[in-house]
Amino acid sequence: MFSKNIFSRYFTSIRQIAAFSILAGILAALLIGGITSLTLHSKREASYDMLTQDIRDYLSRFFNELQSTTSSIQPLTLSDCHQVAGELTSRAAFNANVRAFVLVRNGEAYCSSATGSMLMDMHQIVPDIDLNQSVDIDILHGTPMMPGKPTVTAWFKNPVIAGRGVFATLNVDLTPYLLFSTRQSDLVSMAIIVGNKALTTQSNNVMNVSELPTHPTRIITLQNYPIKLALYGETWPAEDIQISILTGLVFGILSSALCAWLLTVRLRSGKEILTGIKRGQFSVVYQPVVNAKELKMSGVEVLMRWNHPIAGPIPPDAFIAFAEAQQLIVPLTRHLFELIARDAKKLQHVLPPGARLGINLAPSHLHSPTFKEDIQAFAASMPPHHFQLIFEITERDMVKENEASCLFTWMHEQGYEIAVDDFGTGHSALIYLERFKLDYLKIDRGFVNSIGFETVTSPVLDAVLTLARKLSMTTVAEGVETREQAKWLIDQGVNYLQGYYFSRPLTFEQLQEWEGQQKEYQELT
Ligand code: C2E
Ligand code: CA
Ligand code: CA
Question: Domain EAL: where (predicted)?
Fold first, then answer.
């Protein structure tokens, strides 16, 4: 029975709730963890982009300034060393980025800001520098003054006089770059690359480009200078992954706990039903029952509806079983009685005196200690002497034989009638029909369904009808959907008919309208 309910259909056991909650937690963890790591990653990429731009700007400024300084030194190449050595030395001394300036004439270095007059073949000092280029750059393992200290050197050709130019050795220790990098804690190293030589923050020696890590995070190039700067950093650092995992884990656990709480505390405790009652989510509809002789409405069956704000309309089969499992059938049936009583005044004008009002009773209510009290209170809340109340009970409810016998006698004494609902679907109930005095047999719609177009009906239906006649019980056929079914049932002497062929269950307003324009059903006579 519990398996029928809308919630427990999916969550029948604690283990299932746990499994579902864990799954929800894992999904939430993956989702939130993934989003966090992607966010951190894109933030990091953006900060690498900014750093790249800053370093490019710094390097451009550095070389542009160097070029303008050397431009102002170019005229000194017209003079001999002893005439300009002092000037050259002071130029170098005032330029923090320059170790030494060297004047060059016809491929020979002839004057140095550091050592004064000299004569040395430029090919010997910097074999890789092309003196025909207007600007060229190279990396050296050291200079004569500082042999073990690698340096970047730059050549600037004199644009006016052929064969002359200025050569500069630079103070490059990557300090300014590292200063930049302090903003970017995940930067592992940097390398200045010229041709196939590289100076890195990792080593004090000149390296070959092939020795560098293969995938730099960013490469910075300069437009007019043959020099590159490579940045090596982590795009997925362990720290980010840890933060993502931690965030995912926290959210996963929270979602899992929330899910478990919702499923166990809220749904399984039956709070939903009590809340539904309080918030007016339940309503009733009425399905007309038609007299087979006059083909006129003789009464209605009251059916309950639950319009759940999240789950939508929940079928009564589901919520009745749920309410029974939660021991909430008594409050729910009392609420049903309230809803009927609320409509009763208006209902009097639609249904004639003596009209039958069929009300379904849940099996567990029948045997509850407050049953008689509840019924009496309900009857008292209805307009006196107008409706004939019929309580519909399924065969299953008659198994507690003694109790049922007493109850049925009491109900008859009070003037209520009893209908056996869904007749034919229960087990071993036939014997009770003889013992109890019951007023109506409602033939289950499963049998009515078997009445096909121009076909003979099922032997069970035949047997049920014969039995009803023998016990002289009034019969009601449920679930009549076609003209053929209605006609066949009338021919077989069934007393009342109910089903979509006549009308679906209707709200009070719809019932009023339906009653006003009731059809003649000539096709059935
Ligand atoms: P039931 O007592 O057998 O009620 C008849 C059911 O058959 C209703 O379903 C009705 O809408 C449906 N029906 C009527 N005519 C036709 C037809 O021609 N074709 C088809 N296919 N169906 C038709 P509903 O309203 O979904 O109710 C289902 C069951 O839930 C009821 O079966 C009854 O056992 C229970 N129920 C409904 N309202 C209440 C209530 O207020 N209290 C209790 N305890 N049970 C209720
Ligand atoms: Ca019924
Ligand atoms: Ca039924």
Answer: 266-519
